[in-house]
Amino acid sequence: MRNKIRFTPTQEQELLELSRHDKLSHVRLKALAVYNVSQGTPRAAVAETLGVERRSVGRWAQRYAAEGAVCFNIRKGRGRKARVDAEEIGQYLRQSPGQFGIARTRWTLGTLKEVVPGMRGMTNSGVWRSLKRLGYRYKRGQPVVHSPDPEYGEKRGP
């Protein structure tokens, strides 16, 4: 059996507070796991109860002992990398769909995923989430008033 990691009463109280009140669910989960380990519960039992890997519980406990509560935050560069490139999407959005053989004046989610190579195979909601993440918003066209008067253009002016 490996050495048991010892925590001070202050650390145990901090873990309990984090596990109950932190805004981020992953921080609550990790804090709860480490708190249970600090109370003497075997890592395997904690892992099974919380539905995580035993090794993860051990790593969280060791990192908490070394770094404190900041170790529960997700570090930069973690997670799945973005599949779409902001530059690529920007190049397509600045052009008319007609330049790509599409008989439309505005882009739709479906036409974007057909034309943009990085979006091929995505669902419409995946395209929408990618655009939203990159800061693009849908803007409706302004209504244009047309008069049945044949001289409307002249009356309206330039």
Largest sheet data: none
SSE order in H/E notation? HHHHHHHH
Oligomer description: single chain
Helix content: 40-55%
Q: Report the C-alpha radius of gyration, rounded.
A: 28 Å
Q: Give the mean pLDDT.
A: 88
- Structural category: mainly alpha
- Per DSSP E runs of 2 or more residues, the count of β-strands stands at 0
Number of helices: 8
Distance between the termini: 86 Å
In the residues, how many domains can be counted? 2
Q: What is the 3D shape?
A: elongated
What labels describe this entry?
single chain; 158 residues; mainly alpha; 2 domains; 8 helices; 50% helix
Description:
Helix content is 50%, strand content 0%. By secondary structure, the protein is mainly α. The protein has two domains: 9-72; 86-133, no CATH class. The longest helix is centred in the N-terminal third of the chain and has 14 residues, at 25-38. The N and C termini lie far apart (86 Å). The model has no long low-confidence stretch (mean pLDDT 88).
Entry summary:
50% of the residues lie in helices and 0% in strands. It has 158 residues and is mainly alpha-helical. The longest helix is centred in the N-terminal third of the chain and has 14 residues, at 25-38.
